[in-house]
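Work Package 3 (structural annotation) set out to generate three-dimensional models for the target panel prioritized at the project kickoff. During this period the team completed the workflow that converts sequence records into discrete structure tokens, so that structures can be stored uniformly alongside our sequence database. As a representative example, we reproduce one entry of 85 residues exactly as it appears in the project archive.
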Amino acid sequence: MRPVPRFTTGPFLSASHMIEDLALSFYSMYLLSEAIESQLRIEADLTTALEQEDEEAISQCRIDLRLIETAYEFSLISETNNDIQ
């Protein structure tokens, strides 16, 4: 959901759109970096669990990794759909 822009007409309309797009890009980049950090942390935990042969931890790490992969896929689908519109 996009917030209602402050400027709907006038000389500041394009600047308002650029600022909003920039803010959304920064936030998207932040979310992506957080997801990547989580993925790396879970992969390290999975490696440790595999070394310790902890089946419960292995299972949980694999579930967590699949969840992150699904989020990546959903993000790509959403971005593709936004580009089409």
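The radius of gyration is 19 Å.
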